[in-house]
Amino acid sequence: MNYDEIINIKYPFNLMHKRMDKASRAAIFAPFAALSGHKETLMEVSRLTDKKIDIDDSLKDIINNKLNIINNNIKFYPMISITYFLKDKYKDGGEYLTIKDRVKKIDLYNKLVIMQDKTIIYMQDIIDIDLLTNKI
Questions:
Q1: 98, 97, 88: which is closest to 48 by C-alpha?
Q2: Considering the domain 57-131 in this protein, what is its CATH number?
Q3: What is the DSSP letter of 101?
Q4: Which helix (H) or strand (E) element contains residue 97?
Q5: What is the pTM of this model?
Q6: CA–CA separation, 6 vs 47, rounded Å?
Q7: Are strands 79-87 and 120-122 parallel, antiparallel or unpaired?
Q8: CA distance 19 to 14
Q9: Mean pLDDT across 38-44
Q10: What are the residues whose beta carbons fall under 8 Å from the beta carbon of 13, sequence distance 6 or more?
């Protein structure tokens, strides 16, 4: 097909409507994202996670002793600082968190520590506990 015949023909504009400026015309197409979610996916892939540390038996004994002390004094709702591993929902690994709060309950059957702010911590994920209450 040869376009030489139509290349220089003027486009017939409708004089009843004013031409839209380029900025307004570009704004019509701004919400369109061909790769929707691409940026979020890249951010998720680049997010770093920590590996869970395997603790030795002597540290496990220390943590168990502290948990027993806390459980024996649970009626005082002891204030503690606890560091634990929180598994990531989407990737391998997770992160270590430290919170300070009062212990509401220790569930020995399910091996859980339930804090007053309703945070649930698995005992096998605990790497450190500091007792902050003076009553114990």
A1: 88
A2: 2.30.30
A3: E
A4: strand 94-107
A5: 0.69
A6: 55
A7: unpaired
A8: 9
A9: 81
A10: 19
Start-end of H helices in the chain: 22-29, 38-46, 57-72
Residue with tokens 């680049």: 46
Distance, CA of 95 to CA of 93 (rounded, Å) = 7
Asked if 131 and 68 count as a contact pair (C-beta separation under 8 A), the reply is: no
Quote the Cα angle for 92-66-129, to 5°. 45
The total number of residues written for the chain in this structure: 136
**Tokens linked to 123:** 């005992």
Q: Which two tokens stand for residue 72?
A: 């024996």
Domain boundaries, the chain: 57-131
Closest CA to 120 of 131, 112, 130: 112
Contact in structure between 88 and 94 (CB atoms under 8 Å): yes
Locate 6 and state its tokens: 């139509």
Report d(CA 132, CA 84) in Å as an integer: 17
Residue 135 tokens read as 């009553």
**Are the C-beta atoms of residues 80 and 101 closer than 8 Å to each other?**
yes
pLDDT in tens, 82-127: 999 999 998 899 999 999 999 999 999 999 999 999 999 999 999 9
> Residue 68 corresponds to which amino acid?
N
